[in-house]
Task: structure prediction
Amino acid sequence: MNNHLEQLGYLEALESIRHMFRPSNYRAAMSDSLIYYFSFRYESPTEIHKQTNRVLKHYSVDPISFGYVRTVLGRR
Result:
């Protein structure tokens, strides 16, 4: 639970400085952090993709592709 609150705090902090990023850079920073967070909660890349896009939609950010999720998971 504590990790969830830390992640939420990180996203809120990122949201507060959103104006400093280009839209594509903001989307990438937020997507990467969400993918890493959800990769510890779910094993399925499809589920990670769904959950990440759900949160991105909540913050009015364009969704990411499944290939992007696979690329980020491949970096770990």
In short: The longest helix spans residues 23-39. Helices lie at 2-16, 23-39, 45-58, 66-75.
